[in-house]
């Protein structure tokens, strides 16, 4: 049985991809928590006006401590530009090294 047979046919492909990444048997192939947060499944949460009622999001991007040791590529995927400016994040190529 494959993972595609387990999920409903209307399940978004991004959800299936994320789930299969999270359920990898080998820890070296499994994603980290921050990598999971940066997955395309969560891209709509990084949109500045994603809530249908126009209300602001709760503080979703307060990862300063976690991001201090993360690769810059992951940080750039995880934190959208509008939130980097709002949080005053100054990211350089030396982050995560």
UniProtKB/TrEMBL annotation:
<dbReference type="GO" id="GO:0009742">
    <property type="term" value="P:brassinosteroid mediated signaling pathway"/>
</dbReference>
<keyword id="KW-0723">Serine/threonine-protein kinase</keyword>
<dbReference type="GO" id="GO:0005737">
    <property type="term" value="C:cytoplasm"/>
</dbReference>
<dbReference type="GO" id="GO:0030154">
    <property type="term" value="P:cell differentiation"/>
</dbReference>
<keyword id="KW-0418">Kinase</keyword>
<keyword id="KW-0067">ATP-binding</keyword>
<dbReference type="GO" id="GO:0004674">
    <property type="term" value="F:protein serine/threonine kinase activity"/>
</dbReference>
<dbReference type="GO" id="GO:0005524">
    <property type="term" value="F:ATP binding"/>
</dbReference>
<dbReference type="InterPro" id="IPR050591">
    <property type="entry name" value="GSK-3"/>
</dbReference>
<keyword id="KW-0808">Transferase</keyword>
<keyword id="KW-0547">Nucleotide-binding</keyword>
<protein>
    <recommendedName>
        <fullName>Protein kinase domain-containing protein</fullName>
    </recommendedName>
</protein>
<dbReference type="InterPro" id="IPR011009">
    <property type="entry name" value="Kinase-like_dom_sf"/>
</dbReference>
<dbReference type="GO" id="GO:0005634">
    <property type="term" value="C:nucleus"/>
</dbReference>
